[in-house]
Amino acid sequence: MHPTPSTTPPPLLSPPLVSPLVTNDSNRADGPPQTRFPWGGGRRRLFGVLLLAFAVGLAGCGGNGEEEAAAAADDPPPPAPAERPAPQPTGCPRVSILSDAAQMVVFRPGPGRDLTDVALRGVIAGFDGGCEYFDGYVQVAMRLSLAAEQGPAATGDTAGFDYFIAIADPEGRVLSKEVFDTEVRFPPGGDQGGTVETLDYRIPLEEPAAGRFYRVLVGFQLTPAQLEYNRGSP
Hints:
By secondary structure, the chain is of the alpha+beta class. It has a domain at about 5-25 and about 90-230. The protein contains three helices and nine strands. It has helices at about 40-60, 65-75, 225-230; strands spanning about 5, 95, 105, 120-135, 135-150, 160-170, 175-185, 190-205, 215-220. A five-stranded antiparallel β-sheet has the order 1-8-5-4-3. The chain has a four-stranded mixed β-sheet with strand order 2-9-6-7, with no helix packed on it. Strand 6 and strand 7 (about 175-185) form a beta hairpin.
């Protein structure tokens, strides 16, 4: 997977704690299945079948046992039951922005941790995308929007961020994690900027129908101190 940054900054928004799935309506499974009865003749057809069976039964009463056995031997074997088709994949893996890693706050060197000590704040502003199923895997395409703003203690006109993408299976086990770095450049005289990262992720699947139960987890790669700060923030 190779992220491709965009120079168009996204708006600075507070990120959702747990975002819904990417923009893909096929993930919805709340509609009732369509049911259609295979027969259309109603009682008239059923009554005709019963009459035919009754007539055949009367005609068979005049034969002997040997003729009946010979007729039974000539009957073809019953057809084998049809195999049920494999379930088709529906919906995309669910993408979630982890609440504890949805922002990164950088303070200037020193013990101070109030608002005047903030040099930089970055947030994962949102995402969109979709998925496509292939033989043995699902391909997830996503655009991830990162926004940043400078604080009172800011220096310079650029800011670097590390973020991660992790894949979890339907049981919640993390199968893989990759860390990426990106840079946000602030315009002259401005204190806000952003970038849009384009990502393509391939998730191997043994059962294609289980693809929508996998999760794509997104967050900033934080230091222990930054993670503790996020967990203690209101």
